[in-house]
Amino acid sequence: AFKAAVLIQQWYRRYVARLEMRRRCTWRIFQSIEYACEQDQIKLHNFFSYLMDHFTPSSSKERDFISRMFVSGESFKEAELEKYCDYESIEVPDSYTGPHLSFPLLPDHATALLEAFKQKQQLHARYVLNLLHETRKHLKQLPNISHVSTCYSEEVTVCGDLHGQLDDLFLIFHKNGLPSPSKSYVFNGDFVDRGKQSLEILIVLFTFLLIYPKEVHLNRGNHEDHMVNLRYGFTKEVMQKYKVHGKKILKMIQNVFCWLPLATLIDQKVLILHGGISDTTDLDMLEKIQRHKFISVLRGKKRKESNRNVEVEEVNGESNAEAEEAAPGVCPQPRPAQAPSMANRQEFSRWVRQTVQEQIERCRRLVDVSESESEELTYSSTVSLADLDGPCWTRQEECKQILDILWSDPMPQEGCRANTVRGGGCYFGPDVTGKILEKHNLQFLIRSHECKQDGYEFCHKRKVLTIFSASNYYEIGSNRGAYVKLGPDLVPHFVQYQANKTAHMLTMTQRQGFAGQTCNRETLETSEKESAFRALREKLFAHTSALINAFKAYDKDNTGRITLSSWATAVESVLHLGLPWRMLRPQLVRSTADGLLEYRSWLDDLAMEQRSQEHIQSSLLEVIYRNRSNLETIFRIIDRDHSGLISFEEFHQTWKLFSSHMNVELTDDGISDLVRSIDFNKDGNIDFNEFLEAFRLVRQTE
């Protein structure tokens, strides 16, 4: 009996070890593909930034179009935004049966919203815009770093990424209770994208923020960025749910996002920010940055800054008359009046304020900051004016501060280096964490930004805590969600969950005994693994041409066969996913008797698998698989009004932008002929299917 027990134990341990190994491989596949997609987003952004830097509009009309297309969040002045997003002009019909909002909001409004969203009801556009308007007014009065104390509530609950998964938010409120004067919450960014109910999450969080402004705190995440939303689904979600007023809602949300605080500090001891830190992170600087200037931290400002530098040089290097002639839009720099004597301190102080104000006005005109933006005094502007004697930072330095705290990840090694996996932010080591904790007298950091299997994870000797609240993020059963509760002692207490019917059924089955547990766990693991390898095979197929060239480098004699070791090395050299290809090989490549792989036959099998889903020529399908996400993002960028259609004017101006980069000369008539040829149904617009079809036909011809 003892030997039998030992054998059963050994069998079970081997079984659990195999499941764990399978889970880790699956996890690596999902995470590698996710980060590779983020790299594509950064590359696409850099491409458009390059075009903007090297494109010289030939007319004010072109300048206006390019400005509106790429700087859409900043194109509205304060008064214009209010007028464009005027909610009072929108009538609520008598047939509307959803929830109603009136301001100031009460707890009953929040309860009604939660019940309505559980019943799949939709909030009317008037109320959405009204809510966004009130949220924006509130956020503008908040500092860049919110300060929370456990003295005023029993505990503070910190939640990580939700990514549009409303069921997770419902479950958090069910387990932990709704926000109240005795229950504070900090939501650490990434409320939107990927999931299908991002807008509902925003509505719920903004509602509670207005009801309990001292108990609910929201941090900005890297997905609270309209350039990211174009790729990861939030823009599309809003336009599908609000076809009439979707553009107004998106415009307001873009503006609300840029007013979200950047971090939260609990009891001056625990720093909460979305991504992480770097060796240049400066909390004092973050406190004083005008955060609303950064509609998108991805979009560079090189072109605007370079223009500004040229203008300043012209003004400084020429006489006033010459400067006005060379740069008619720039006000010449006035000669400062002679300073009064220091003996009269009051008069001297008045002179300093007047001189500084004149310089501020001049700089505002140089960078085209609208005067309406200065009408309302905000917290960040108050800090900036109060610290006139402090250091002056460039816009790029400020942008890097925000980019680092939104995009960075911790690493076990010492030091700080660029985050090449994501394409933005940095990797920071334990020494970087230790320095910032010591400098600001902090106990530990809480961040999100990374999916963790258990919903949370400590690193850097428990000085950095990652909390992730979106369960089943990659696939059903892939991970738990979690939130952390902090009391006055600041000792973290974790609550884990899985907000999914299948996961709930699995938990109930586990109570019935070991057999049910192992059976369901294996089924769930198998389903997750199949999904991961399906995504990986799609990724391999999308790079067929590059893989063939890589394989040929190892096939010197053109036999069509390479070793399995060479296969693994070649695949990694093309995909750069950092996966253990030798370990994954049995799932991707059929076993061979002589240890050699016929790579063309293997690639044909991949193509056959994809062609079974879409009846398109394999080489063409490969290109579409590889570029579809980028094509969709480009389409949405060109479609500046998010109508789902590209107008002839939008296409015309965008083509001129591309042709300037490619050094292709094409007349206006030629561009008009081109756009008419893409408009297959001749309705005067280009939809995404026509856009994709044109791409497909061009590749097919090639």
Tell me, rounded to a whole number, the average pLDDT: 77
What distance lies between the first and last C-alpha atoms, to the nearest angstrom? 71 Å
Strand order, sheet with most strands: 1-5-6-10-12-11
Low-confidence stretches: 71-75, 300-336, 366-375, 502-519, 612-625, 697-702
CATH superfamily name of one domain? Metallo-dependent phosphatases
Cofactor: Mn(2+)
Catalytic activity: O-phospho-L-threonyl-[protein] + H2O = L-threonyl-[protein] + phosphate; O-phospho-L-seryl-[protein] + H2O = L-seryl-[protein] + phosphate
Keywords: Calcium, Hydrolase, Manganese, Metal-binding, Repeat
EC number: 3.1.3.16
